[in-house]
Amino acid sequence: MKQQAVLRAIFAWVLGVLGRPSETGAMRLLSRDPPEGPASLRGRIAVEGMLVTSSELAAEADGRTRIKAGPQLLAIPSSVETLGAGCFQYYGYFTWVAFEANSRLTTIEEGAFRSCSSLRSVCIPASVEVTEVRCFADCRALSFCTFAAGSRLATIGTAAFQDCYSLRVIHIPASVRELGEECFSGCQSLGFVIFEGNPRLATIGKCAFHHCLHLSVIHIPASVQVLCESCFTQCSSLASVFFETGSLLRTIGKDAFSHSGLRSVCIPASVCLMGADCFKGCESLTAVAFESGSRLTKMETGTFSGSHLRSIVIPASVEVIEAHCFEGCEFLISVAFEEGSHLQTLGCVVFAFSGLQAVCIPASVEVIKAHCFLKCESLVSVTWEGGSRLRRVEEEVFFGTPLKEVTLPNGERIPTTRYASWECC
Length: 425
Fold this sequence. Notes:
This protein is mainly beta and about 425 residues long. It has one helix at about 1-20, and strands spanning about 25-30, 40, 45, 60, 65, 75, 80-85, 95-100, 105-110, 120-125, 130, 145, 155, 170, 180, 190-195, 205, 215-220, 225, 240-245, 250, 265, 275, 285-290, 300, 310-315, 320, 335, 345, 360, 365-370, 380-385, 390-395, 405, 415, 420-425.
């Protein structure tokens, strides 16, 4: 009795701050905007009552919806089509959210359940098509979130589940086409991401799974075309990434897997662009393979810098390797170029401070930029494929190697300490 009296006193204070309750004492929406009828829950809410059952859900004569709630369960009527922005934000009175059978809910708006500190479990109805920005963000006790069978969900919005520290497993419905920016960022307990069969997912957004410290493996569906910037960065336990057979992936974005725990990876043939620093700082990464028939044309700045690669074969399709791509790969002793290489440019500092021992430059290479092999202290052999089209070697390309001089394709010898660029006449 004493506990109930205390709770009622707290509820009375909340009601005084947020608005006037209905005559029945049920939890009721108090709209800040003009009433929009029973199909929408908008604005702030006032709370009173100790228990929720579906039989106690009702609609008032003025068209507004009443809900009863207590310390454990919040039930949403089937008539509700929209949960308005911030409608339950910062409330800690319930641990479960249930939706009445045959729910017509289509949209969970921005911040609807944000920072509901006690919320542990929710099953999102099949009718929901959009979960908007931060709708469940900072629900730090949320450990179970499921989507009802036959889900029509198309988008998981920006930061929708950001910093849900207790969330361990998430099943992504087949209907989802886009995972928004930071949608699961900071979900430190998230260990399993499961994509429902025959997925339509095309984009994994920027920082979508950033800093998911317990995520150890991910299977990327064949339907995914873009991995955006930093989508798996700082996933320190992520040891394996698998791309489904027949992958349509075109772009691996900047920092996509940087500073993750990856040990090996096979890049799908469909990938055309590897963004800057996409595998930077992956200190467990020792093996990279490219699927046969690779269409990769460009490896951007710092792609594998600081990784622990032992060897790599560059696909024939690659035309440009940009600056710092393999810089600091101290265990990289062997680089080979696939037969028929189209490589035209080796950027600045590409192999600097790596463990390379020997290299054969493809005939297609026209420009080697400054400091490309800087401080490769194990490099003892540089050769050129027959029919070389080399026309320019910039300053100090081989500076700091054991080599005293390098013989160029035309037979000219240049000292490795040479500062000026060399131009083919």
